[in-house]
Design brief:
258 residues; alpha/beta; six-stranded mixed beta sheet
């Protein structure tokens, strides 16, 4: 869900598996908020495409393009790609959304996307529910097979997803602020979620001291089957170099995994 903070007119974009459920609850505890509505998202999408079917795009993880309004600031959180894949897999295992392994013949593999393509832009292709829906064809109950399929069919997925939400401008990083169209962009890290959110709120002159004592929300336990093959891990790190360089100063592993 995208959250509009009515004062000081800021927008929080919820990138999947980056702590957004906790951020939503924390924001509601310290300031006035409202969720961007289905009607607002549909109105933008219909303006893009007269044939758009209302209700197609999921409002839970829409990006800035689908949130009408002249927001003074926009902020989001990222997560290191290595643990992002672990969290995505764990979440799908938790809710039973993984296909059986080995890959069933009745469920065809997705087409590999073009590594040289300019997609994603800020807009979703016609009929797509959300950006992360492109991973649906890769989710299986075996973690090694899941990451292998990501590398085969959706290489660099996390880097592209961050581009969809935060633009391709390399100046938008955890340590920097980018000015575009009069807006200020802030990016925090899931690994230091509470401290980063409190800092962003302080910049916007919102008292966020209470967020540091709020308990975690929607955390998926790490399944024991999440084990990395060293060669596959190196491939993932290489494929996600754009995100790792942009948001983690080139650190190949997140701090808690070192």
């Amino acid at each position: 869900m995208a959250i509009h903070i009515t004062e000081p007119n800021a927008l929080f974009l919820h990138i999947p598996k980056t702590g957004g459920c906790w951020v939503k609850r924390a924001l509601a505890a310290v300031t006035e908020t409202r969720e961007i509505t289905r009607q607002e998202v549909d109105a933008v999408a219909q303006g893009d495409d007269p044939d758009y079917v209302p209700g197609t795009i999921a409002t839970g993880h829409c990006n800035l393009h689908y949130c009408p309004g002249d927001f003074a600031a926009v902020f989001a959180f990222v997560r290191h790609p290595v643990t992002w894949y672990e969290s995505w897999f764990a979440c799908h295992q938790r809710y039973g959304q993984a296909a059986p392994s080995p890959w069933p013949e009745s469920r065809p593999a997705p087409e590999r996307w073009d590594s040289d393509s300019d997609w994603p832009t800020d807009r979703l292709p016609t009929g797509m529910v959300s950006f992360h829906a492109v991973l649906d064809g890769c989710q299986v109950s075996s973690f090694p097979e899941f990451v292998r399929r990501v590398l085969d069919y959706r290489p660099g997925f996390v880097s592209r997803m961050y581009g969809h939400y935060l633009g391709q401008d390399s100046d938008t990083s955890s340590e920097q602020v980018r000015y575009a169209d009069g807006r200020v962009y802030y990016t925090g890290r899931q690994e230091s979620l509470a401290d980063n959110l409190a800092g962003i709120l302080a910049i916007m002159e919102v008292d966020g001291d209470r967020v540091n004592v709020m308990p975690a929300t929607n955390v998926s336990p790490r399944p024991p089957e999440i084990k990395w093959d060293s060669g596959v891990l190196r491939e993932i790190i290489a494929a996600e170099k754009p995100a790792i360089d942009r948001f983690y100063n080139g650190a190949e592993m997140p701090a808690e995994a070192v």
